[in-house]
Specification:
This protein is α/β, with parallel strands linked by helices. It is 40% helix and 19% strand. The strands form four sheets. The chain has a five-stranded mixed beta sheet with strand order 4-3-5-12-6. It has a three-stranded antiparallel beta sheet with strand order 10-7-11.
Length: 318
Amino acid sequence: MHKSIINNMNLSWEDAQTFLAVSEHQSFSAAAKSLSVGQPTISRRMRKLETELNSQLFIRGRQGAHPTAAALKLIPAAEQMARWAGEFDRAAMGVEQSISGTVRIAAPPGIAVDLMAPFAMRLRKLEPQIRLEILSSVDHLDLSRGEADLAIRTRAPTEPELYALHEKFSNIGVFSTRAYAAKLNQPCTWIDLDWISWASPYLDVAPRPMLEKLIPDFNPVFASDDYLVQKAAVKAGLGAMIMERPPKLTALADTLPTSSAQDNDLVEIDMGFNIPVSSFFIVCAKSMQYVPRVSRVATLLISHLASPEITPTGSTSK
C-alpha cells in the first residue's frame, strides 16, 4: 500500500531523502546535519509531506522524533528510492573518464587511524587530483545508497549489490609499553593482564567479545568508545591491548606520520602462543568499481595492503 501512495503522489527524492534521514536519526536536528540543511528546512519539508499524505509521520518529544505506524510502512519504499538514487549517481560518475575528484572510504576506527593516513600520503603522491574522505565509524555505512564509495569491513558482504574486491589477512598480538611489559612474568595468561578495551555502546566490537569469553567476569582496567583514547591509554602505561603487529618502518621512515612511528614504543607481550589471524575486506557496490577514480583508489589500496611494511596497527571493528 505504501508504494501505491508514493506513486500516486509523485513523491520526490528530496522528500524521500528527508523522510529517511529523520527516520534513521530519529531527530530533526540530526537529520538536518546529515543533509547539510537547516532544521527549519527539515520541519517545513516534513509538514508538507504529512499534509500531502494526510497522516502524521513522526511524534516529536524530548527523546527525539519517533516514526508512527504510517511512517514505518513508508520506510522500505524510501530505502528503495535511496538505492536507486545511489545507482543513478554511480552510473553518472562512470560516464566521466578523468581520474579526479573525491573518494569516500568508510573504515573502522583502528584501520582509519593506522592504515588510511599512510595510504593517503601515498595516494597524494601518485594521484594528486584525487581527494580522500575517510569516514571512521564502528557502524556500517550503506554502500548501495552511496553513503561511501568504498568500505573496509571485517566480514565479507552478503548483499547481492556489494562486492569484495580484496581480502587482507591480519596478524594480531598483545601490546603494551616496554615499562608495563617489564613487570610481567612472561609468557602471560589472559588473566595476568590489565586490559584496555571498548566501552558502551560498543561492547560487541572485537576483541572485547573474545576477551569476555576467555576471562571470567571480564572487567577492563580502562575502556572507551574511542579507539584513539584506548590507544593513548596503552601508551600511557595503563595496560595491554590487542592490536595488529606494527609495521616495519625501515623503508618508510620518511613517509609515515610521526604518530605511526611512535607505535614502535610499544612491545608485544609473550602469551605463549600466536593469536589466530583475522581478516578484513575492501568492499564496494558492484557498479561503483567501474567509476575511474574509485577503481584507481581501490587498485592502489590493494597494492598498499600487499606491502608487508604497511599494515594497520590496531584495527578493531564489528
